[in-house]
Amino acid sequence: ACAISGLWNCVTINPLNIAAGVWMMLNAFVLFLCEAPFCCQFIEFANAVAARADRLRAWQKAAFYCGMAVFPVILSLTLTTLLGNAIAFATGVLYGMSALGKKGDAISYARIHQQQKQMDEEKLTGSLEGQA
C-alpha cells in the first residue's frame, strides 16, 4: 500500500508530493527488508538487514517505523500519503504496544494494591506507637 501510494503520489508536478512519494516507496522497501526478507531474496544484503532489525528492541522499531511514516505526511498532507503510510504507522504502533508488555489481570493488581495498603497501615500504626 505504501509503495503503490508513493508511486501514485509521484504522478504530479508538485515537488513536495514527489519527495513524499519517493520517501513512501523507500519506506515500503525498508519495511520489506526488515519484516519480510523472503520477499527480497534477489537482494544480497536482505538477510543481513533483517538480522540487524531483529536485534533492535520493540520500542526502537516502534520509533523508527512511526518516524518513517510521519515524515511524508509532514512533507505533503494529502489523503494518498495518509492512507499509504497508515500501515507503516500501524506497524510502529503495534511494536510500541508490544514494548509496553502484557496487561496484567485485575486480581493480581487488586492483590498488589491490598498489600501496599496493609504496608501503609503498618507504617502508620508503627509511627503512632513510636510517638506514644
TrEMBL record:
Name the source's superkingdom: Eukaryota
- Membrane topology term: Multi-pass membrane protein
- GO cellular component term of the entry, any: membrane
Query: Which Pfam families did the record assign?
Result: Cg6151-P
Transcription among the record's keywords?
no
Which locations, inside or outside the cell, does it occupy? Endomembrane system
Q: Which InterPro entries match?
A: TVP18/Ca-channel_flower
Query: Which family does the similarity line name?
Result: Belongs to the calcium channel flower family.
State what protein this is by name.
Answer: FLOWR protein
Q: Which organism is it from?
A: Spizella passerina (Chipping sparrow)
Which lineage?
Eukaryota, Metazoa, Chordata, Craniata, Vertebrata
